[in-house]
Each structure stands twice: as C-alpha cells, then as structure tokens.
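Re: the request from the purification team.
They wanted to know what the chain is likely to look like in 3D before they choose a buffer screen. I agreed to run a prediction and write the result into the notebook, where they can find it.
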Amino acid sequence: MTSGLQEGWWWLGGALGLAVLGANLAWAARHLPDGAARDALSRLTAHPLTPYLWQTVRLLYYVGLPFAALVWGQDAVIGRWLGLQPFALFGAPPDAVGGWLDWVQDAGRAAALGGAVWLLAEAGRWAYRRAVPSVPPSPLPSPSLREAVYHEAHWAFYRNAPIMTLGVYWGAWAGLLLTAAEAWLNPEWRAGLADVARAPAQLLRAGMAVLSTLLFLTTQNIWLAVLLHWAITARCRD
C-alpha cells in the first residue's frame, strides 16, 4: 500500500470514527437522567451562541476535513475522485466548446437520474400516506444548499480511499457501504427508521446517498450532484 493510499485510509478512518463517536455522545447526552448534568446541558443548548458554534463544527467536519486532506494529505485525497470536475467551459475556445458539451451531457444524465429518483420518492410518499393515513410524516429537513454541499462532500470523501484501493466502480459502492455503516452506528438514525413519522425523511436521505453514487459513476461531477441534491430535496417538501 502506497503512502498516499495508506494516509487516505487514515483520514477516512478518522472521519468515520469522529462521526460515530459524536453521534453516540449526542445520543447519550439527549438521554441523560434528570440531575445537574442534564440541567447544565440544557443551559448550554439554550445559549444564543450554541447554534453558531454547532454550525461551525459541522462546516469544519463536512467541508474542512476533506479540504484539509486534499491540501495537506500528500495524495491522501485525489480531487478527481471527489468529483471536482474542472470548469473547462471557461478555458480557451477549443477547450471551452468541449467543456460545454461535457457539462451538457452530464447535466442530461443528472436530470434523468434525478427525475427517476424523484418519481420513486413521490411513489413512496403516496404509499406511505395510504399505509398509515393517521400518522403524518415529520417535516423533511430544510432543503438548503448548505445541507446539499455538506452531504455530497461527505459522501465523496468516503468514496475516495475505496476508489484508490478498488477502482472507480467497486470503490464507489464500497464508499456507499461505509456511509451506510456510519448511519447504522448512529442510534438516532436507527431510532428514526423505527419511527413511522420520521422514517420517510430517513429513507429520502438514504436514497440521496444512492443517487450520489450513481451520479458519480455517470458524471464524476460533484457540482451537479450538489445542485441535483438541492433540487430534489426542495421538490420533495412541496
């Protein structure tokens, strides 16, 4: 195993370990028994600066960690396998024409995949309303561009080391399996799947992870993945 590949797995293992540790600590904190510790946690979460601190931590984890691995990781992360397709459409005339054609073709593939996933999501919502009409689903997460960037960057980072080890096809699916393992090791995620009201949002997120993998195999373009993720989650809230 080359030094870059070995370091890539170290970065990936660190990210996965942080995610699992953080999720389980958060779960334990939310289920503290009544007492001084629970009161202190309540005061902390009610502080007006806490939401800003939390979003800073999320930014550093979802975007800062892959960026640090890309810049300082000594080939631990390869931009191509993150889907960082260059904006060749702004190059010299011959390159710009080729860049435009590549982007148009990739956008067409993305639209086809996105349309299929959206239809499946709508069919799932219809089946859910028929099966449990008395239990309205919980509101879906806010379809912000920020959340689309965070999740697509995270999933792309999880694909990087497996692709360097197994090749593009099997590495992309191995990255998806790591994403599934991270979710399953999160007690909040498992509780959401068992909750009839929260399960649709959980399943939509899982579907977006699968779509991200398919889109990478088709276009290797994270910019289109972010836009498609944003568009589908926004449409599914209508």
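For the purification team: DSSP finds ten helices and no strands in the chain.
Please add any questions underneath this entry.
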